[in-house]
Design a protein that fits this description.
The protein has seven helices and seven strands, in the order H-H-E-E-E-H-E-E-H-E-H-H-E-H. It is an alpha+beta fold. Strands 4-5-7-3-6 form a five-stranded mixed sheet. It has a two-stranded antiparallel ribbon with strand order 1-2. A hairpin with a 6-residue loop joins strand 1 and strand 2. 56% of the residues lie in helices and 21% in strands.
Length: 224
């Protein structure tokens, strides 16, 4: 009985040390040096040339086209030519990921497929969020290593189960952070572009009447 009490006391003390070390760990505003070679490839230049930033671009383009089916086929070829991949595809729009360096080329080609109804481009700076998640990931991995060492020293089944539950929770958080980091890298390396295309609506009978009146009035005042 006394041995179990001493074991639990040691376990509690070790758990306290783990959390204390994690909470006192210094937080840096820079990404860990071990990850610099991995993250540099996803950093893009912003307006401030003295600092690299990760920018996630989102583009939306709507077109009036003569033949939506033919337009969709051409867009699929253009996506392939620009080393992109399809995120979602329907009869009237395509959402794709295009490498950031090919974004302008793809958009320029897409514009020529019809009359532009609307176009928008948004850039989101995700640098700070990305670096914060990288730092948190390294911290959680450090805590996991401490728990693994603690698991090796556990003397009872109860102690092992307690540590394993904590390890499961930590591993879940690590997986979530890794997912966020990978998504941020993808967002910075590949722009997400949605191209919508549809036939231009034709006016009805009343519309043609007003269109004819407009043409007649225009002829009275404008001579070519």
């Amino acid at each position: 009985m006394m041995k179990n009490i001493r074991t639990m006391s040691v376990l509690a003390a070790l758990l306290f040390m783990v959390f204390s070390c994690a909470s006192r760990a210094p937080v840096s505003t820079e990404a860990p040096s071990g990850l610099s070679s991995e993250s540099d490839g996803y950093l893009q230049r912003s307006g401030n040339e003295s600092e690299d930033r990760m920018i996630s671009y989102s583009v939306s383009l709507s077109l009036y086209v003569k033949n939506p089916g033919e337009t969709r086929k051409i867009l699929l070829d253009q996506i392939k030519d620009n080393d992109g991949f399809i995120v979602r595809e329907t009869e009237n729009y395509i959402t794709t990921r295009i490498p950031a360096e090919n974004t302008e080329n793809f958009i320029g080609s897409a514009r020529t497929l019809g009359k532009v109804e609307s176009e928008s481009k948004t850039g989101t700076d995700i640098t700070d969020q990305y670096r914060d998640n990288v730092i948190r990931l390294e911290s959680m991995k450090s805590v996991r290593n401490r728990y693994l060492a603690l698991l090796e020293r556990a003397n009872t089944v109860s102690d092992m189960l307690t540590v394993e539950r904590e390890l499961e929770r930590i591993n879940t958080q690590i997986e979530l952070l890794e997912g966020k980091i990978q998504h941020a890298q993808l967002s910075a390396e590949y722009s997400i572009i949605t191209v919508r295309f549809r036939e231009k609506p034709m006016p009805g009978i009343v519309g043609w009447i007003f269109y004819g009146l407009y043409r007649g009035v225009k002829w009275l005042f404008v001579w070519k």
